[in-house]
């Protein structure tokens, strides 16, 4: 079985080849991030156009470098949602066209399932059960993975994603998009105790997150401050975000009694978050792992792998015919 994986849910165009016998053969990702620096965020129409302009070229490159022909592929796993509709439709159209021409099976994959299973791409890959803290520009979720195909979101943001909050605060601090890495760099020289920014929904062991009030507090704080205070603001903001993430993840551990943790998504590269999770794991006898960064951020390797797992364990295949901008994880088989 040779699976072609296709990812185009947001601003990364990803193609991958995954073999039943050899595992991941190769994957390529084109990030559109440079296109959006001047806008300070993803513009959906530009994202879709860029997927359309690049996807075939990347596919050709992938086949060439792996010495494969299109005809070698016998299964296509593509991201059918959730994501930006224009972006999703480019990957979907390519997937449907190839599948129809080659007369092979098509597996629509939920993007979140890709992220949840991504740790399995590593050689000593983690096996369920585990808790996944998925933190990126589009997601902030604690997902309970009890087994392959058995996922439950037990906590998630009710407004901004945590990477999005970093990016918005980056904008307030006049840092270039995406602000996340720049805010955390600036925070290294700041006093994280100077400002006590709010941690939302900390009562009753609620596992959900909210970051929009935090962003507003930063906005108000900045009204009376100068540029030399920015490092303290960045550090205090980062502290508030990481405090919320780690506190709630620990509550999730206590609730579920699951002691294996995975942290994934673009924000998983945040140094302080990693440090705090390491401490938390050491103090509570937990195991925490991170898929390597290229599998943490959006990529097609995880989509091909999710397709492989669905076939291997004979899990139901979602019968969608259309890309789904909204596709709750709980509706995998509806
Ligand atoms: O998973 P990802 O590459 O892409 C999508 O969300 O599509 O995540 C990108 C997000 C951005 O919001 C970026 O600012 C944030 O992850 N990010 C960080 C760090 N590195 C990336 N946020 C905080 N600290 C970092 N070191
Ligand atoms: Zn993603």
TrEMBL record:
<keyword id="KW-0819">tRNA processing</keyword>
<feature type="binding site">
    <location>
        <begin position="134"/>
        <end position="138"/>
    </location>
    <ligand>
        <name>substrate</name>
    </ligand>
</feature>
<feature type="binding site">
    <location>
        <position position="180"/>
    </location>
    <ligand>
        <name>substrate</name>
    </ligand>
</feature>
<comment type="similarity">
    <text>Belongs to the KAE1 / TsaD family.</text>
</comment>
<feature type="binding site">
    <location>
        <position position="298"/>
    </location>
    <ligand>
        <name>Fe cation</name>
    </ligand>
</feature>
<feature type="binding site">
    <location>
        <position position="115"/>
    </location>
    <ligand>
        <name>Fe cation</name>
    </ligand>
</feature>
<keyword id="KW-0479">Metal-binding</keyword>
<keyword id="KW-0808">Transferase</keyword>
<keyword id="KW-0963">Cytoplasm</keyword>
<keyword id="KW-0012">Acyltransferase</keyword>
<dbReference type="InterPro" id="IPR022450">
    <property type="entry name" value="TsaD"/>
</dbReference>
<dbReference type="InterPro" id="IPR043129">
    <property type="entry name" value="ATPase_NBD"/>
</dbReference>
<feature type="domain" description="Gcp-like">
    <location>
        <begin position="24"/>
        <end position="305"/>
    </location>
</feature>
<feature type="binding site">
    <location>
        <position position="167"/>
    </location>
    <ligand>
        <name>substrate</name>
    </ligand>
</feature>
<dbReference type="GO" id="GO:0002949">
    <property type="term" value="P:tRNA threonylcarbamoyladenosine modification"/>
</dbReference>
<dbReference type="Pfam" id="PF00814">
    <property type="entry name" value="TsaD"/>
</dbReference>
<keyword id="KW-0408">Iron</keyword>
<feature type="binding site">
    <location>
        <position position="270"/>
    </location>
    <ligand>
        <name>substrate</name>
    </ligand>
</feature>
<dbReference type="GO" id="GO:0005506">
    <property type="term" value="F:iron ion binding"/>
</dbReference>
<dbReference type="InterPro" id="IPR000905">
    <property type="entry name" value="Gcp-like_dom"/>
</dbReference>
<dbReference type="GO" id="GO:0005737">
    <property type="term" value="C:cytoplasm"/>
</dbReference>
<feature type="binding site">
    <location>
        <position position="111"/>
    </location>
    <ligand>
        <name>Fe cation</name>
    </ligand>
</feature>
<protein>
    <recommendedName>
        <fullName>tRNA N6-adenosine threonylcarbamoyltransferase</fullName>
        <ecNumber>2.3.1.234</ecNumber>
    </recommendedName>
</protein>
<dbReference type="InterPro" id="IPR017861">
    <property type="entry name" value="KAE1/TsaD"/>
</dbReference>
<dbReference type="GO" id="GO:0061711">
    <property type="term" value="F:tRNA N(6)-L-threonylcarbamoyladenine synthase activity"/>
</dbReference>
<comment type="function">
    <text>Required for the formation of a threonylcarbamoyl group on adenosine at position 37 (t(6)A37) in tRNAs that read codons beginning with adenine. Is involved in the transfer of the threonylcarbamoyl moiety of threonylcarbamoyl-AMP (TC-AMP) to the N6 group of A37, together with TsaE and TsaB. TsaD likely plays a direct catalytic role in this reaction.</text>
</comment>
